[in-house]
Amino acid sequence: MKTLPLGSGAPGFSKLRRRLEGQPLAPDVGAEALPSCEEARRFWSERAWSEAAAVPAISQLSLAMMRERFELDVLGALTRIASDEVRHTELSRDLANGLGGYTEDIPPEVPYEPARLAEIEACGAASWVLSIAVSETVSAALMQARLRYTTHPAVRDTLQRIYDDEKAHAATAWLICQNLVPLVAQSERDALAEQALEIFEAIGQTFITAGLPTLERAQARRVRKVTAERGLGAMPPDEADQLVMRVVTQTVAPRLRRAQIPVQI
User: Fold this and answer.
1) Which of 56-65, 106-115, 161-170, 251-260 has the lowest mean pLDDT?
2) Separation of alpha carbons 65 and 85, rounded Å
3) Which of 47, 127, 181, 215 has the fewest CB atoms found within 10 Å of its own CB?
4) How many Å from the N-terminal Cα to the C-terminal Cα in the chain?
5) % of the chain with per-residue pLDDT over 70
6) Residue 10 per-residue DSSP state
7) Residue 225: enclosing H or E segment and its boundaries?
């Protein structure tokens, strides 16, 4: 089992980073502001893992763009997105801590384990931007829907802040995808279509519960059900599953085809 301790580094580094980014320090979400909830702390720990996994994915895309198409505007946008994802990881971790304690143990079957993404070397820019465009689009759609069920003010504020960023991230990734993919060979586009199907399968085991084995699915559904009922940032699992299926078939797949990735689902 991998661990993701999510520390803050040397004393004072957080303030220095905020100053470099030109952003105010995020308000602390203390334990006194949140109820203790085992399911919600688990839910937000998983969200922290997912946000952390976006950091190596964005970094890999940045490196690939530097190797293949050194464009300063794109690199600048990606650098900002990576910084946002670090902040989202912190916000999710802090919510988990306030809800009973962040858990750093990542089960081995979790496909978005951050260190694993950092080790991949063979993928090109088109492959990485495909993954990011799909995941950010699904993530943003889920967050928008989860806001309807989120009643706790501190949790809702955090979710709204992350959602606002995710919308911009998705738009950026699609813009890169639409400009980059037509430049690659047809054989690579066919390979990207196969990759998209693999991403859709992984989404069923990460963002939602539909693709999980029976036992893991029951546990994940309870986490989402209880967290949603208490207004702490999730949505009912059946509704989440249905939403993501619609987003994949009605939004993501058509956009991939318009970007000349011949995905068929």
Assistant:
1) 106-115
2) 19
3) 215
4) 33
5) 82
6) S
7) helix 214-229
